[in-house]
Design a protein that fits this description.
The model has no long low-confidence stretch (mean pLDDT about 95). The chain has a single domain (about 5-195), classed as Purple Acid Phosphatase, chain A, domain 2, CATH 3.60.21.10. By secondary structure, it is an alpha/beta fold. Helix content is about 20%, strand content about 25%. Strands 5-6-7-8-10-9 form a six-stranded mixed sheet. Strands 4-3-2-1-11 form a five-stranded mixed sheet, covered by helices on one side. Helix 4 runs parallel beside helix 5 (about 150-160). This is Serine/threonine protein phosphatase.
């Protein structure tokens, strides 16, 4: 079993970053599901806060940073996934970032439509863990107004791939919530330590 520490939506919180770095000593793998900074600002600082992670660290961009920006700011030992996969500790991990579907937040937000998201997810033939910034439609995706705003493309990919675990963030009102889609455990992470064994 691989012991996994996962989080999302750090949004430049130094205190939360320190807690995550400390917790990472007990992990075999760390996963970050996007939104490390705020509105495309402060990403270098966010990555510096996390640079002392002691384990392999897989991340996807949120809607607050682009894939290119995240790759440029990443430190050694950090693997950025956006429409691609990697194998670590015998686990196939596939990642897709950004706000899906498009958000109402304006020009700063890194968003993607369902069609483009589905095309990138089609690249994945197998995943033990699916890491996305946005949640799947109908699971851990409810706003404070009670609206389900998740992605149909991500939900379809979970049903097709049947990963053991699917983690996301993005919808702050659903942080810490879990659901199942088929046999897959789905968790909206939030910025505190979430532990899994896969």
């Amino acid at each position: 079993m691989t012991r996994i520490l996962a989080f999302s939506d750090l949004h430049l919180s130094r205190g939360r970053a320190e807690a995550l770095v400390a917790a990472s000593a007990d992990a075999d793998l760390v996963i970050g599901a996007g939104d490390f900074c705020n509105q495309r600002e402060g990403l270098v600082g966010a990555m510096s806060m996390l640079k002392d992670m002691t384990r392999p660290f897989v991340m996807v961009p949120g809607n607050a940073e682009s894939a290119g920006e995240l790759r440029e700011a990443a430190h050694q030992g950090m693997t950025v996934l956006h429409g691609e996969g990697v194998e670590i500790a015998g686990l196939a991990i596939f990642g897709l970032g950004y706000g899906i579907p498009e958000t109402p937040f304006g020009a700063w937000s890194c968003d993607m439509g369902e069609t483009d998201a589905a095309a990138l997810l089609e690249r994945c033939a197998r995943a033990d863990i699916l890491v996305t910034h946005s949640p799947p439609k109908g699971a851990v995706d409810v706003t404070s107004q009670g609206r389900s705003v998740g992605s149909t493309a991500i939900r379809d990919a979970i049903l097709r791939l049947r990963p053991r675990l699917a983690v996301c963030g993005h919808i702050h009102d659903s942080w810490g919530r879990s659901a199942t889609i088929g046999a897959t455990q789905v968790r909206n992470l939030g910025p505190t330590p979430n532990w899994f064994e896969v």
